[in-house]
Amino acid sequence: MAQMGFGFDDAASGEMHRLFFALWPDEALRPRIAQAAASIVSEHAPGGRALKPDKYHVTLQFLGDFRPLPPSLVDSAKAAAAAVRSPAFELSLDQVGSFRGANVWWLGSHRAPDALRTLFDTLGRSLAQHRVPVKSAASFVPHLTVQRDVRRHIPPTPVPALAWPVREFVLIDSQPGRGTPYEVIGRWPLSAGDQ
Q: Motif HXTX 2, which positions (predicted)?
């Protein structure tokens, strides 16, 4: 994929790193999401392949792909995250949908909480203030991918709700070529008193 304009060499210079901020389900919620995803796949038969539960997340801000990963960028991203003040909130995963271009099925919320949008916006402003470029889409569509390479698509459809108490956000370093789970390289709490 394209470099981010930091002037690094091509593929010969190291492993690919995909860097992004995300909401990260805790270990109690992951199996419940996997069970919901399995039920959806069983009922709707989209084809494709299931995402492993250790990769479940909701992307907040995508920083891009890097080869190599610049330590100064990571430091700036962490400083930007540390400056974020945003309330904790409850996210209800209560609908399934799909993206045609990406051929994925996802779980999401029919009405995302205002605090999620606040977190997305606040983090985006802080990244800009810390001169950290982002590659996020123009519009924020919070979703948790559960199935890739699907052969059929589905409009947003209600499913039994999963309650997700969101109390933090994380910075993830993914190395796509290694096939290993995502590595959490930073965690930041949300404000408990502002719910």
A: 143-146
The one-letter code for the residue type at 128 is A
Catalytic residue among 17, 44, 110, 143: 143
Lowest mean pLDDT among 40-49, 59-68, 178-187: 178-187
Give how far the C-alpha of residue 54 lies from the chain's centroid of Cα atoms, to the nearest Å: 12
Instruction: Report the number of distinct structural domains present in the chain.
Output: 1
Is 47 within a domain? yes
Task: Determine which one of 57, 110, 130, 153 is catalytic.
Answer: 57
| Residue 45 structural domain | 12-194
**Look-up: residue for tokens 């109390």?**
167
Distance CA 37, CA 44 (A): 10
- Mean pLDDT confidence for 96-122: 93
Closest C-alpha to 146, from 55, 59, 11: 55
Residue 158: pLDDT band with limits 50, 70, 90: very high
Q: What is d(CA 64, CA 52) in angstroms, rounded to the nearest whole number?
A: 22
Active site residue 143: yes
In a domain, 2, yes or no: no
Judge whether 5 lies within some domain: no
Stretch 113-119: mean pLDDT, rounded? 96
